[in-house]
Amino acid sequence: MVKKTIGFNWGAAAVSTAIWKGVPLRYILQLAGVKNDDNYEKTRYVCFGGTDKLPNGYYGTSITLKWAMDEEKDVMLAYEINGKRLTPDHGYPIRMIIPGIIGGRMVKWLNKISVTNKESDSWYHFHDNRVLPPNVDAERANKENWWYIPNYIIYDLNVNSAIAAPAHDEVIPFSSFSSDSEYTLRGYAYSGGGRKIIRVEITLDDGKTWLLSDLFDLEERNGRTWCWTFWSLKIPTHSFVRSSEIRVRAWDCSQNTQPENLTWNLMGMMNNCHYRVKIHVITYGKDVVLRFEHPTQAGNNPGGWMVRQHELEQKQSAPANTPANASKSESSSKDPKYTMEQVKQHNNEKDCWIIIDKKVYDCTKFIPIHPGGTTAILINAGTDCSEEFNAIHSDKAKKRLATFYIGDLDDSKRPKL
Amino acid sequence: MVKKTIGFNWGAAAVSTAIWKGVPLRYILQLAGVKNDDNYEKTRYVCFGGTDKLPNGYYGTSITLKWAMDEEKDVMLAYEINGKRLTPDHGYPIRMIIPGIIGGRMVKWLNKISVTNKESDSWYHFHDNRVLPPNVDAERANKENWWYIPNYIIYDLNVNSAIAAPAHDEVIPFSSFSSDSEYTLRGYAYSGGGRKIIRVEITLDDGKTWLLSDLFDLEERNGRTWCWTFWSLKIPTHSFVRSSEIRVRAWDCSQNTQPENLTWNLMGMMNNCHYRVKIHVITYGKDVVLRFEHPTQAGNNPGGWMVRQHELEQKQSAPANTPANASKSESSSKDPKYTMEQVKQHNNEKDCWIIIDKKVYDCTKFIPIHPGGTTAILINAGTDCSEEFNAIHSDKAKKRLATFYIGDLDDSKRPKL
């Protein structure tokens, strides 16, 4: 059973590769008279502050001065992504880019850089982007000050990999099978700190044998690899027939690989266990097909075997004295009620509903004036985005949300899985 | 089932920490007029050659020039260990020390340094210190030239950990148990590339829960940790009663951890799966005791659950038509025969027998003149050291060995496990 974390739903999506344009941070620091330290006794830091005011103050974080000044680390003040000026979502007008490490240090909407003798004092520097040991929950972390233990901060990303093809819900009809039909598995792999991916392997028999995939090496820069590596593996389609799962694991140039199983941590960050796509044999109209199921889907998209497993476990652990239809009979609110299915229809720029904490909001009119940009709302249109909303919005924003309230979520009609 | 590799028996012992004294390699290179490259297009290398002539030529290897010149990598020409001049075993008169990477690059008995445009051309640079994918065996590696694929070379060590206490064969009598008796688990953890160990955890319930150990941090140097980290964890002694295994795993500052299970590779190198000590409840005279069993023991010492498992598996896979006592009845040699038990008695400086390929040698007289030093023989006195001997000795050395032959190993009386 996997406990709920207090972090975002990342899926396999918390890594990206783009072409960034900007100014090396070290040039700016040098212009300001900052010199690299020869004094290794005392660590100095470069602190970054954003203009985004969140429930616990402004977002901010820091890296060591040594890191910032290292010409091989490629730390950059970026103003362009893939040949275009940054959009608000990507941190317009200027943001940090620090290759190889966790995104949380790459402050968006940057408005302040300072060189200090200690780490950033932003609440978010300490309370986000940490991996705490698995037996530390929120209560214990706060009570015993685990957030401030230096070992648990995240900088470098670890080695990771994911499967992109077959996609979630992709099907292969048995009627298309022939002795020479092939399928090309595809995906990406990545490691932090500029470490190169040297090997990506697939198993179709629960780890008994591993098949070596082809790698598409991206260019190295000063002996470092900042980008994800694509992998692919062509296999006979019939290899799937006796297999219940496709698993991938990567190895980096430090000979590290991924653990087989997930280790829970409070923020739900940096889990890099083997990525598993389940293979189902199902009937689909008159066909018999193989259907592929990923563990979760990106963002708030429904589905995935981890989600299904989690819901099953929750159902099993529900108190025995709660009647199955309790939510229906106990409903007393007189506000309009909308089902998930109804909300899902309002999923575009001209008609955009969202659900937050079981309340439904029509925020169509708010889209063009959203401080976080248009896309930030639109990717959530027609979905329940409670977690995302609550994690990054201030109390002021939460009050403003109330203006757009139109009714409650009727979850008594949710399909039983 | 774990297949035999062509490498050494390392156990958990292929890592060490010592205080080295020497001259930074970059000083020597600078004196010789070598400058660091600004041209990142072309990698330059520093090649090291040893005076040890092996079956396939002199031992040698290389690292990049960039690495050699980096003042934070602490690459050193060492002449002292722990305050004393190097012994022959440790590479007298001078050897390489390259912190954080595999020992195979730290050439002993150093006699040549050259700066070149390509890697070392020593046979051993390519045919040793590689991790090949698990489906590549010796025949395929040689036939398809896997030794020369750049991705599979080892430099950085990966994250690893081991249990030292309880030791192999340590016992705790149940008669010593009381409600307040405690046991302190101890061991070491390590990661390559100067990456710090941030977390070491123990499980007594097969990974369902993990207990956080205490770490004894060693000093960092330029933000890098070159030494192993000791860990300890005090637990109530009765925690062992319902547990069949103690497992340890470490995490480093790049958020990498160890895989649960071993992945076979041809050289048997760099396996860093969870270290498991089995717990047996056995009678021991009149006592009932807990007895601890490590996976293997260092060097040629017998025992360990992996060894036992391996022998069992071999027995099960033996051809059915081989009579159980075949070795006895087929014996035809007229040379004297010695049992393992007899050989074991000759285990010291004044009386030193060894077994190589089922032949017994009395090499007492050779000890003081062994080119590899006294200790190299003495640690093998009274044991079967076929693998170690064959791996590092030249044909000339093998011929010389014949001088000391005294008889054959009688393995018909080996105890059945």
Automatic annotation (TrEMBL), chains A, B:
Gene Ontology biological-process entries: nitrate assimilation; sulfur compound metabolic process
Domain of life of the source: Eukaryota
Region (Disordered): 314-342
Entry's EC annotation: 1.7.1.3
PROSITE patterns referenced in this protein's UniProt entry, alphabetically: CYTOCHROME_B5_1, CYTOCHROME_B5_2
UniProt biased composition (Basic and acidic residues): 331-342
Keyword terms of this UniProt record: Disulfide bond, FAD, Flavoprotein, Heme, Iron, Metal-binding, Molybdenum, Nitrate assimilation, Oxidoreductase
SUPFAM superfamilies found in the cross-reference section: Cytochrome b5-like heme/steroid binding domain (SSF55856), E set domains (SSF81296), Oxidoreductase molybdopterin-binding domain (SSF56524)
Span of domain Cytochrome b5 heme-binding: 335-410
SMART domains on file: Cyt-b5
Cofactor(s) needed by this chain: Mo-molybdopterin; FAD; heme
Bias kind Polar residues: ranges: 315-330
Molecular-function GO term, any one: molybdopterin cofactor binding
Catalytic activity: nitrite + NADP(+) + H2O = nitrate + NADPH + H(+)
Subunit structure: Homodimer.
Similarity-based family: Belongs to the cytochrome b5 family.
Purpose of the protein: Nitrate reductase is a key enzyme involved in the first step of nitrate assimilation in plants, fungi and bacteria.
Protein name stated in the entry: Nitrate reductase [NADPH]
